[in-house]
Specification:
The chain has 384 residues and is α/β, with parallel strands linked by helices. The protein contains ten helices and 18 strands. 25% of the residues lie in helices and 25% in strands. The strands form four sheets. Strands 5, 7, 8, 9, 10, 17 and 18 form a seven-stranded mixed sheet that branches. A six-stranded parallel sheet has the order 13-12-11-14-15-16, sandwiched between helices. Strand 14, helix 7 and strand 15 form a beta-alpha-beta unit. GO terms for molecular function: 15-oxoprostaglandin 13-reductase [NAD(P)+] activity; zinc ion binding. InterPro entries: ADH-like_C, ADH-like_N, ER, GroES-like_sf, NAD(P)-bd_dom_sf, Quin_OxRdtase/zeta-crystal_CS, Zn-ADH-like_protein. It comes from Chelonoidis abingdonii (Abingdon island giant tortoise).
Length: 384
Amino acid sequence: MLRCGLFWSCFGGARPRPILDMSYSRHFLDFQGSSIPSSMKKLVVTKLSSNFREAVVLRQDAPVPLPGDGDLLVRNRFIGINASDINYSAGRYDTSVKPPFDVGFEGIGDVVALGLSASARYTVGQAVTYMTPGSFAEYTVVPAKQAVLLPSVKPEFLTLMVSGTTAYISLKELGQLSEGKKVLVTAASGGTGQFAVQLSKKAKCHVIGTCSSDEKAGFLKSIGCDHPINYKTENVGAVIKRDYPEGMDVVYESVGGKMFDLAVNSLATKGRLIVIGFISGYQNPTGLQPVKAEMLPAKLLKKSASIQGFFLNHYLSEYKMAMEHLLTMYESGELVCEVDLGDMSPEGKFTGLESVFRAVDYMYMGKNIGKIVVELPNSVNSKL
């Protein structure tokens, strides 16, 4: 129970801020020995737009939030970039939400403060990762029940939060994978594609992956892809028709537009097309690229084929199990979690919230191999 009295604690020499209960006011000293500041940097959507640079501004003096009774305050060390960040900045997921609002879906960092109830399971200094809106900030309040405790702060763990679980749950629930099935993964060297490839191989499937460069094709081979196809130098439809005349049993599709049409045409009898996104259209005002839908019913009927969409938020009941399984696989060396920190980007590594804009651009230029992650440097000066 929180006591009713208010106690005061100083934050970094700034004006006093109220702490609800002296018994955990000590938590508002960073575990490395420095006071938590009263203000921070964060990204905020100020205008609805699929142009991330137009929609989002970097605020330099946002107040550091206080965790509630069941919350953690996490100092973010790495944050994940997702194709859907611009869908969120465009207001496509919840039309009732109006700017300004926070942005970013996932982060990993250190617990630096927590509420009393949360302290039953967590302590200051622990490493956690989470999937909660508002990660594009130096500090984020995370409900303790949504945090995942980790042995250390490593960006590889962050790849699993959205990208890994999307592949794991969608293929488990919708893919019906079994030995010898032919699986086509589009954008196979990207954040979620890399996991779709590896999980399909774990199920003893034959995996075909599309990509946009020979370097990406090499990466796909290194993680077990049987047949990478560079769509910049090869005609994907012609290659599939030539090498796999009976078609694909499962397609894991995230590109949309012409690639979606190709995926439909490549389905085998009783084939299954899983739509987890359509990145090629996200930058458009509608969020979509045109597809040849007029013949779709006939094509599906002819092959007894099916198309199913997958949105991670509808499968949160499976989330904890999926994360635990993926973490075990990674820690035992069974899973590659490729991270792209922007070292090969024109302006170098993605460091600091300022570089989120570059990281989003980098994704939409199709340059990344693996999950794009931005590192937030530790701005706290330790007294230890």
